[in-house]
Amino acid sequence: MLIENGKGNVDLYDTATVQSLAHFTFPSLIGQAAFSADGNSLNILTVDQNVYNVKVPGTTQNAAVR
Length: 66
Description:
With about 70 residues, this protein is an all-beta fold. Helices cover about 0% and strands about 55% of the residues. The chain is globular and about 30 Å long. The model is unreliable at about 60-65 (pLDDT under 50).
């Protein structure tokens, strides 16, 4: 689960344990976010039209952050 706590500040939580997995900071608000089909990465689109791909902590797939 991804929760935005303020302008561009988001926290990633494990829904099974409700524990925080990671904190991310982006330069603007999140417009849309989606997990990859395998759950190893998260694709984020900010309202200023930048796209980011981040690796979900605890997974083995490498993903670059733009």
